[in-house]
User: Fold these one by one.
Assistant:
Number 1:
Amino acid sequence: RVRVRELLASGTSVVGQKAVVKGWLRTARAASKGALLFLVVDDGSCSGTVQVVVSKGAPGFDAAASCGGVGASVSVLGTVVASKGKGQDVEIKADEVEVLGCVYEPDGTVGASTYPLAKKAHSLEFLRSIAHLRPRTKMHSAAMRVRHAMAFATHKFFNDRGFLYIHTPIVTGADCEGAGEQFAVSTLLPDAGGEEGNGHAAAAGGGPPMTPAGAVDYSKDFFARRTCLTVSGQLNVETHACSLGDVYTFGPTFRAENSHTSRHLAEFWMIEPEVAFADLKDDMDLAEDYLKYLVAYALGHCQGDLEFFETCPGGEPGLRERLKNVLQNDFVRMTYTELVDLVRKDAKEGKVEFSVIPEWGDDLGSEHERYVAEKVYNAPCIVTDYPKDIKAFYMKLNPDGKTVAAMDILVPKIGEIIGGSQREEDLGKLTKRAKEMNLPEDSISWYLDLRRYGTIQHAGFGLGFERLVMFATGIENIRDVIPFPRYPGHASF
Ligand code: 4AD
Ligand code: MG
């Protein structure tokens, strides 16, 4: 069996050779008064397809002519021939066709009139409602190939630099970001009233067991404590950075943000490197190198798919040009204070209108982030030194006592794609900060130990993987760059 990707890449050099192609029909059309059948086969290996010409009389001709057409699965054995058609060097002249799976109507007869993808153009919203068939679309399959390439390039980048891939846990008792956006995991042991380990809601009375003092009683919980799905692997991966040196984690993370935006998911993947003996400058340099590496990798390895994203309906015509520009320039670097000043000045001068004009100390809205990255610079911007009160407890306090050594990378159209910082390595300062932010010391004593026993300067960041795929493909909604998007009201299978 040859993949369509290899066949198209070989072009006319394989004319005359026998080939077996397996895949799904995009179209099936009779020609020459029924003497020929043209099948267009897609096997998902690339954004291209291969045309198969079947002559009446070839074994399987009748079966292929009556398999329902679009969506049916076939296996074709034939000879590669030069194609007279436009846009393709080669096609396959079939010796025989085997229909592997027909397409059926609800009444069991063969036909594609109710096949959800029978019509050509579909809204992305409709495609999300058929997540099990969405992989059959060109758009989704191209997005998944780029997604794969970005994951592979991530491992290659870090491996080549000597980083170790550390698997951090999904279930945890820690709240890294302290934003109160965690999904609780609560599982009663079967003998505690839950039905075969069902959640607390299955306990008698419908709610979790309570102590006489009115708190949730975790004594019968599987983990004997409150646990949640992780919002970030950072705190865990820091333990290994403070021993193994350069490490990273890459896994799913979960946030119960009730955000109905095109850039938030409840379940998303994050890459989090953590570097021993590094400061914020090292962190920014690593992040810039890594993003540029990913962009170069996409340009070098995903050409067909990027071309598809430039020409497909709703695509971004200048996609590859935009990506090349990312490689050619240094990222803009500015402080939070400079950014707020710029945004306020431009709003005052009437250059831009915002729904909210930020004061120093406010969290930036995506309208401000995007204005600066998109309209002012049209390039990735690294923003540093945020007010401590809008950032997490673990960030290193700057000498001014008001800001922390944090950095966010903002990119056009998306806004924040990376968030990172130098970590507070001073035990006293970190303990004080945790107290100020009402973090129970016993819940992070293990984390404080890293500062108690041979503390070191270290820094890291988190790249939102789906936002990266949006950046690399120009796809505008984060729900379209992950196989099964989770967002409010959506988590069926
Ligand atoms: O800025 P965040 O919250 O940083 C952290 O979690 C740190 N612990 C990372 C670290 O220093 N190791 O998240 C990092 C990135 C964001 O910049 C964004 O790209 C992405 O994760 N992100 C989301 N992506 C999709 N949906 C959401 N709800 C996201 N929340 C954050
Ligand atoms: Mg952030």
Note: The domain at 4-118 is CATH 2.40.50.140 (OB fold (Dihydrolipoamide Acetyltransferase, E2P)).
Number 2:
Amino acid sequence: MTIEEKSRKTLAELGVADAAAVPALFAELREAMQREREELIARGAGSEAERQQLAKALRDRWLGRKNGILAYLDESWLKSAPKDLKPVVGREFNQLRQLARELEIDRLIRDLTIRLEESPSVKGGIVKSVGGAIPWDAKVNVRIGASLTLPGYRRPLGSIHPVTRVQREIEDIFLNLGFTIETGPEIESVYYNFDALNILENHPSRDDWDTIYVDAQTVLRSHTSPVQIRAMQKRGAPLYIIAPGKSYRRDNPDATHSPMFHQLEGLAIDTDITFADLKGTLDFFAKKFFGEKVRTRFNPSFFPFTEPSGEVAVSCPFCDGQGCRRCKQSGWIELLGCGMVHPEVLRHGGIDPERYSGWAFGLGIDRFAMVKYDINDIQLFFQGDVRFLEQF
Ligand code: FA5
């Protein structure tokens, strides 16, 4: 039976009733897929037009939306799998899908070389691929046999970094609520980073063990909270902003810390803003980001620039709060710090605390991305390893 024929039959019709038999079935498909790709690449194309056509044909055979082998597998193996086979079929199918990304047209074209005609100027004939070693004709300064009419190589497009992806997702939620995006400098004055935020002279975070000082009055901002003050001074009240951006701390790199990381600040100032507005907004945000099922939990905390202050956790979206590996069996995942803007901070921003009140929060975008994509080492975000990044 050919691969196509198999892909159109259900597992029951193929006589597979046992989970142990599923991996072998998929291994056969993976081998066939790889073999076809390798054979095509070894054969090469005779012209640019043929290269495009061969790449498309192989891509369509496996990935065609309606008649591709994977589309059939999805219908007849995955969707119709009996309940007890579903997990193993799903896992194997995902692996196959990952591998099938090598059959995307851009990737095939990148690897599929064009066979060059035998050059009349080379006796004995040297026929090489564009990518291979082609002898050089010093007199005319071109590669012998190379067709100068060929189009250049297309570089494969990159993908959006997972931290950027999560940042944009969070931004979209708040933009839809009517917030605007504000930015501030990463090289910040001690005044904006600490003093204006009511972080007093003796606070441990001001220590140069924690904060990276450029000089006595200048730091690499240790959080995005200084943007609160800058935005208040620039725009006044009412004010509804978010401020995403890089922050820096003297934290040793480990699985959850990086000396450079990304935060996103939220700030709402208006007349009659209460803690209930903060709770409602963050609960809405958590549900939009993690799914409607999650619940939020507010615990008391302390930040010098908010009073009262809180820490927000979300019920684990993976186990529905039951306890699993990802929430360290606790059922909850810590999300962010927040609170009602301290009157002193409003004053520093030039806003009258008798007339206006506000709430603020600050979250770690990288940590959100780790939860979202189940990544257990923050360092992966900053190493630029294409094998990691191309999964997104
Ligand atoms: C703050 O930085 C406060 N400015 C947040 C805030 C804003 C509270 C407004 C109240 C009102 P904290 O130090 O907890 O809080 O940092 C916030 C988040 O930044 C953390 O929850 C964590 O997700 C992230 N974070 C902090 N340090 C690092 C680090 N070294 N690497 C990666 N993420 C970090």
Note: Residues 138 and 174 are 62 Å apart (CA to CA).
